[in-house]
Write a structure and sequence with these properties.
The chain has a domain of 50 residues. α1 runs antiparallel to α2. The protein is an all-alpha fold and 85 residues long. It has two helices and no strands.
Length: 85
């Protein structure tokens, strides 16, 4: 069960429990609403435990073992500001 389905069950259960005041023969809508909210909450917790613990790794560019080219950087200190003529 995904996050969307869990939230849907919680919402439908809350509507049945708190918003509707209907009397259906032999069926207690308040109990059905509480059951739907409990199942939705349990599904949400299970979904978060299963999917929340996974680490996501983003790989960009070519997947090589090392760099493809090297650049050499030299620092020079043997020059100064340009001479004015």
């Amino acid at each position: 069960m995904g996050i969307g389905a869990s939230l849907f069950l919680i919402a439908v259960g809350a509507i049945l429990t708190f918003a509707l005041h209907l009397h259906v023969g032999g069926v207690n809508l308040d109990v059905i609403g509480w059951i739907l909210m409990a199942v939705g909450a349990l599904g949400l917790i299970v979904t978060m435990v299963i999917w929340g613990g996974r680490r996501r790794e983003v790989v960009s560019g070519p997947t090589t073992a090392g760099p493809t080219e090297y650049r050499r950087v030299e620092e020079r200190s043997d020059y100064g500001p340009p001479d004015r003529l």
